[in-house]
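Friendly challenge for the regulars: who can give me the structure tokens for this chain first? No prize, just bragging rights.
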Amino acid sequence: MKKYFSTIILLIFNNLAVFSQTNISGKITDKDTNEIIGALISEINSQNKTFSDLEGNFNLSVSDSSLIKISFVGYKDTIIKSADLQDIAVILQQIEIDDNVLIIDDSHNVNIYALGYYADYKYMPYGISFGYFRPHLLKKLKSAMISSFVKTNFENNYNLNLYFSYFDLIKLRKYSASLGINYNYSKIEINTISADIEDVNLLLGNTFYKKFNFWTGVIFRKQNYEVQKSEIGYYFTSNYSFSKLNNAIYSSISVFNNYYEYSFTFTQGLSKTRNNLRNMYILLNFSQYKYYNELNFGLDYSISR
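First reply, four minutes later:
Bragging rights claimed.
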């Protein structure tokens, strides 16, 4: 009896060892401390895996004493013990290749899709938003993002917005520059106001220390309110991200000849899966325009594939 009892105890401890889990985390960068987006972090001899997020961070629950492989196209694979991956920076070494050789490998790349609701509660309460982020495929290709939204009241008000940005046109250790273009069309009939407004924004983005962004640009506006009119304005916006809190704040102002418009936005990430492949965000925006103001609410669900 004593022998059987000892055997049972031994089996229990063996099973606990097999199923014992540990949480690994860290940040994937290159030798210049630039974050690597979409690096594959996988547990060897397992289907367990995740990808680094937009800031190079990752988090994954793995078995104790397992080996973790980190890989990304154009860089050497790195294998590390799970016990050594506790909130550390992992620096990947770039593969030295001939500049005339083109490497195409999509296996470790991540596309980020976002779909959600975005609308003004009073004047245009129905809306939908879409976003798509594409990290670089090749060694010299930069990242790009496309986003859009449409909102309406299905009567006389609607707003269409299209946005494209091209990131890291210039990339230094503590600074990067990006380009963007934004198209916005609004048709509004509010009280005694009836107007058609069409904007095209050309933007230059500046990012400092990978957290603070400042964009400047020119707005080409056509509007039909009482009389048809074209004008040029100047656009300024800034935002700061709090990565540990998973939120960000934005502010912007558009300055024209005899008036200005402004907005404030707050975003908050609600939840992440353990593989960082899905996330949900809420967004609150107040915008003051020349003729009226809006209080917009958004709810976005994003998935990485």
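The chain has two domains: 2-91, 112-304. Residues 112-304 form a domain with the Porin fold (CATH 2.40.160.40). Your move, everyone else.
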